[in-house]
Amino acid sequence: MKYENLRIAEIDDEYMVLENDNKEKLRISSYHCQSCCEEHYLDFSGIEELVEDGMLFCVDTENPESFFCRVEDFGIRLLPTNSHPVSVPGYGSNNGYYSSDLYLTVEDLRFHKEVLRVDVSECQDIN
After folding, report:
1. How far, CA to CA in Å, does 94 sit from each of 37, 47, 84, 127?
2. Contact 108, 23 (CB under 8 A)
3. Mean pLDDT (the chain, rounded)
């Protein structure tokens, strides 16, 4: 499915929400299935200063690479259709025993349904 002309509606430390005039509303966040005391996440807290008014995004669930790109050992870059990329760092702490899996997730908030999950495990700075 393709969601077009999405504007940033909300930014939180753990997610951002995009919406358009068609009432489509998506939450972009990260997911890690925690086993013990390890932690792996994308940090949206610093992106507010990188965002410009009028930025538009297109999320195509069949072609997720058109929406973001991976940056190994750093995080991801969100790719607006009309402006500069927005860097979102990824962080992890792990003793090496537990999983360091990290996923970028997109949830359609109208239906409370995950519409996209992409492995971005290599896109984090792990201590």
Report:
1. 8, 25, 32, 7
2. no
3. 94
Query: For 33, which DSSP code?
Result: -
> Token pair of 54, please?
């009028």
Cα–Cα distance for residue pair 10/44, rounded to 1 Å: 11
Structure tokens at 95: 């003793």
**CB-based burial of residue 100 (10 Å sphere; 0-12 exposed, 13-18 middle, 19+ buried)?**
middle
Written as one string, the DSSP assignment of 5-19 is EEEEEEE-SSEEEEE
3-state helix, strand, coil in the chain (%, to 5): 5, 50, 45
- Distance set, CA 53 to CA 5, 9, 14, 57, 115 (Å): 13, 11, 21, 12, 26
Give Dmax over CA atoms of the chain in angstroms. Answer: 46
The residue count for the chain: 127
pTM comes to 0.92
Q: pLDDT by residue (tens digit) across 5-64?
A: 999 999 999 999 999 999 999 999 999 988 787 889 999 999 988 888 899 999 999 999
